[in-house]
Amino acid sequence: MSAAISVRGAVKRYGGITAVDGLDLEVPEGTCVGLLGPNGAGKSTTMKLLTAQAIADEGELEVLGYRLPGESKQARAECGVVPQLDNLDTTLTVEQNLLVFTHLYRVPRAGRREAIERALALATLSDRRDSRVDELSGGMRRRLLIARALVHRPRLVLLDEPTVGLDPQVRQELWALIGALRAEGVSILMSTHYIEEAERLADTVVIMSQGRAVATGRPGDLISEHAGPEAIEVYGPPERLAEVESDAERQGLRTRRTGTSISLLTLDRASGPLPAGERRPANLEDVFVLLTGEHIA
Length: 297
Ligand code: ATP
Prior knowledge:
Bound molecules: adenosine-5'-triphosphate
Low-confidence stretches: none
Oligomer: single chain
Largest sheet: 6 strands, mixed
C-alpha cells in the first residue's frame, strides 16, 4: 500500500523550543490516522509542516508523493485542509463560500455545480445553501469548513482538531461526516486531543508527546501492548492507594492515579496476589496516561 503521507525524522524548532523532534509518521492511502497528544505535543506544528505553512529544519516529508517543501504547491492542490480556526467568509452564503473554493482549487467550470452539490450533501447543508454564514450555528459552520475542503475531491484531508470546543451533539455530527469521508476511501490525518474521537475514527492512532511519536498502532493493539487487557480500579484513602501502588510496582505492574483511585494495569505481569477492586477493560486513555503522563479529555 502506498502512503498518502510519509514523514521521516522531521524536526521543527522555534528558537530554543523544539516543537517537532524527530517525528516519523505514515498515513497509508485510504486510512484514517489520528494524531493524539496533550497540549504542546506538536500536533499543530506537524499539521503546519504538512501544509507547508512551516518548513521543517530537518527530515523528509512527502504528501501524496510530492516532496515538501519543494513540491508543496502541487501537494496542497490535491489536499483538503480543515483549519482549527474558522476562517469562513461570514458575509457570503454557504453556497458562495463553496463557490469561491471551487475557483481556488481550480475545479473546471463544467464541474463546479456538481462539486458544490456534492459538498453540500456530504455536510448535510443543502437546505441552508442560501444562508449567510453569520446566520449558521457553530456546528453548521464547522460542517461547512469541512465541506469547503472537499470541493475538489481531495484524496487526502488534513483536519486540525476538528471538534475542539464543540458540544457533544455537534461533535457526533462531525464524526458522522468524517466517517462518511472514510467510507469513500479518502485518506485522513486528524489531530485531536479527544481520546474518544481518535478511538472512534482512526484506523491507526499516533500518540505524540514532546514532538515525537511515542506509540503507533490500532487502538486495540496499543491497549493490549501497553496496558491491557484488563485493569483493576482500587478506591480508598491516600495511604491505602500508596500501599497498593508500591505493591503493584514491586510486581512490575504499571499503574495510574486519578484523584480517588488507582488503576492497576498490565495485570498479566503480576507475580503475586492482586488487591480487590473494580475490574474494567483497559482503554486508550490508560495508554495515553502511561505514555505521556498527561490527563486529557
Ligand atoms: P495544542 O493541543 O495546545 O494545540 P499542539 O500539540 O498542537 O498543542 P503545538 O502547537 O504544535 O502543539 O506546539 C508545540 C510546541 O511548540 C509548544 O511548546 C509551542 O509553544 C511551540 N510553538 C508552536 N508554534 C510556535 C511558534 N510559532 N513560535 C514559538 N513556539 C511555537
